[in-house]
Structure prediction request, 174 residues.
Amino acid sequence: MNGPQLGLKIDPMFECFSKSKPVGYLSPEQDYPRGEVSEDAVDRLVDLAKHPLVAWCGSHDCELDPCGSGQFQPELKYRGLVVPTWCSTDIFVPGESALYVVPALILHYILCHKYAPPSYFLDAVIACPKAASKEYFAALKRFAPTASTGGADTQFFEIIRDTEGNVIPVCKEP
Ligand SMILES: [Zn+2]
Prediction:
């Protein structure tokens, strides 16, 4: 087994949850759709980003132009909060039929690079209960691994339960 590496830790995560779907992992090699995103959706993503369920052992920097060029970029703020150009956490958005797994960096992509995520994802964001609420954990639980399916992933994740008994996978310490 290799040491802790970001790439190694993401894949088991996707398998850990059933029906998970990655959204918003942008790279400079691939173009992406641009457009306006409603403030309501951005506010909900900010709320989710402020209450991360898992933190990766590495961080992910924005590599899009011009951030990836290494030139100085002015600090971006949204409602008084600094929007970082890197992240080490993911956002989980439970949808109707899939659990969307998104880097917290999506806020920077939307606000700085005008990224327009797919509408099915934004619909799920708007419908998503408040972060860390009982309703949110209940929605997440529909996709969480059961004790029987969680076993295969425990080399990367500890399966813990919150006070309500909901199953939450947490990244293991390196
Ligand atoms: Zn950037």
